[in-house]
Design brief:
Order of helices and strands: EEEEEEEHEEEEE
Number of domains: 1
Helix content: under 10%
Number of helices: 1
Strand order of the largest sheet: 1-8-9-7-10-11-12
Radius of gyration: 17 Å
Number of strands: 12
Distance between the termini: 44 Å
Structural class: mainly beta
Largest sheet: 7 strands, mixed
Strand content: 35-45%
Shape: globular
């Protein structure tokens, strides 16, 4: 399967978030109207976000495109989770995307999935619906630390709509209590 690699190394990409020694690129909200559709009368009003990107130069064939840097997801216009993951190898990035796309049901597949290479490394960006019953409007950054952990320890930072940053990944999953007699 594998995703197409979007090479951003020739561009000076703004940095957005830092976890240990990994500097994540800036996330952008891409808004506009699909070129195949006639522009609706309300086109002059603020458009709904259609996708997220790590490149301020991306337009994805949209008309009246607006690209905005994202620090937090805004509950008034954003929906779901935006997940930016750092990868140490191209193989691990492709494996991650393949696993996500193979595992997810049609209703929960990401609306955006992309693989980027910057001067600072390889990153995947996913935009997906929130898991039912869990918090919405989350911007999630994740990487693995191999310092003292041969298989790597997952490091996650979650940016909430109010700008608060937490490390508590329990808000991303349903906790199941299993009783074993």
């Amino acid at each position: 399967m594998g995703a197409t690699l979007i090479d951003l190394r020739q561009y000076r990409i703004k940095t957005g978030f830092r976890i240990d020694d990994v500097q994540f690129p800036q996330v952008y909200r891409l808004m506009g109207y699909y070129a195949k559709q006639p522009l609706p009368p309300e086109a002059s009003r603020r458009q709904s976000p259609l996708c997220y990107t790590l490149s301020p130069n991306e337009t994805n064939g949209l008309l009246n495109t607006t690209v905005e840097p994202v620090r937090t997801l805004n509950p008034e216009i954003d929906s779901g989770w935006v997940i930016v993951r750092h990868h140490t190898t191209l193989r691990s990035a492709h494996g991650y995307l393949d696993a996500i796309l193979d595992h997810e049901s049609e209703s929960s597949k990401p609306t955006t999935s992309a693989l980027y290479q910057t001067r600072r490394g390889l990153f995947t960006l996913l935009h997906r619906k929130q898991t039912r019953g869990l918090q919405n409007h989350l911007l999630i950054y994740t990487t693995k630390s191999y310092a003292g952990f041969p298989e790597g320890e997952e490091i996650v930072r979650i940016v909430h709509p109010d700008g608060n940053v937490t490390e508590d990944t329990s808000i991303l999953t349903h906790t199941r209590v299993i009783f074993v007699p």
